[in-house]
Specification:
The structure is a single chain. Helix content is 29%, strand content 22%. It is an alpha/beta fold and 246 residues long. The protein has one domain: Rossmann fold (3-Layer(aba) Sandwich), CATH 3.40.50. The strands form two sheets. The chain has a seven-stranded mixed β-sheet. It has a three-stranded mixed β-sheet with strand order 7-8-10, with no helix packed on it. A hairpin with a 2-residue loop joins strand 7 and strand 8. Helix 3 packs across helix 4. The longest helix has 23 residues.
């Protein structure tokens, strides 16, 4: 079942003793992962740089749709910005549900995919009532435009305080993050017109009130202050203490 929507990749319920797998760590593995697997070694088509492995991590080449591990071998599985690339999401997710007791998934949101589309992304996703819906972009004649990945995923998160605050005060605006136990609900290529209406056409004003409810001025100030505190703390840990943080 879905447990919650974490605010960021560091906001995860992982114990110190947990054995953690990351599926598709690519150029930016999560520091908490003990073992990182990746399918492609000789191409960066699906990632923004060469594969990186941190000093404390093991690496293994493996296909996320057919993981070479025993049932519930891991306490926790992390998967960030990978599901949108895979050929068979049902198999890919089933394998993580099989090998891990719980985990974390991060993917581009519906808005994120339209703002920053990539040719390597096969699926566009939207979470509705705690169910993740995946639509094949070719089925809705999705047009890949100008690729802003370098700006929005690499440069601005590092150099723009305003962008960092936006990411933290509206954590599921550009990405979908969900933490799960055992599994979570998802639908691949839904046929319900009430679901498909979100994936093409024009965004409706009333939808914003559902997915991004308005906040009071006090809550906005509180969230912004909390975001600044988190930015300050992580910057200190990264630059002064030299820790790998998100």
């Amino acid at each position: 079942m879905k447990l919650r929507n974490p605010k960021n990749r560091s906001d995860l319920n992982i114990k110190k003793s947990d054995k953690v797998l990351e599926v598709g760590g690519g150029h930016n593995p999560h520091p908490r992962a003990n073992l990182v697997v990746d399918k492609f070694l000789d191409t960066n088509y699906h990632r923004s740089g060469d594969i990186k492995v941190l000093k404390h991590q093991e690496f293994m080449q493996a296909d996320g749709e057919n993981l070479p591990f025993k049932d519930k071998e891991f306490d926790y599985a992390i998967c960030c910005q990978v599901l949108e690339h895979v050929e068979h999401p049902e198999k890919f997710l089933a394998e993580q549900f099989r090998v891990a007791k719980q985990g974390f998934l991060e993917v581009p949101s519906l808005l994120g995919e339209y703002l920053f589309p990539r040719e390597s992304h096969k699926w566009i996703m939207h979470e509705i009532d705690n169910t993740l819906y995946l639509v094949d972009k070719s089925s809705i004649d999705f047009k890949v435009g100008y690729d802003l990945t370098e700006l929005t995923q690499m440069y601005l998160p590092k150099h723009s305080i305003g962008f960092k605050i936006l990411e933290r005060t509206h954590p599921n605006l550009i990405t979908i993050r969900l933490e799960w136990k055992d599994d979570f609900k998802f639908v691949v290529n839904p046929t319900d017109p009430e679901i498909l209406k979100y994936f093409s056409g024009k965004w409706q004003e009333e939808w914003a009130h559902v997915f991004f409810p308005p906040k009071t001025m006090w809550q906005e100030f509180k969230d912004a202050a909390g975001a600044m505190w988190h930015i300050t703390k992580t910057s200190f840990q990264s630059k002064v203490l030299k820790r790998n943080v998100y």
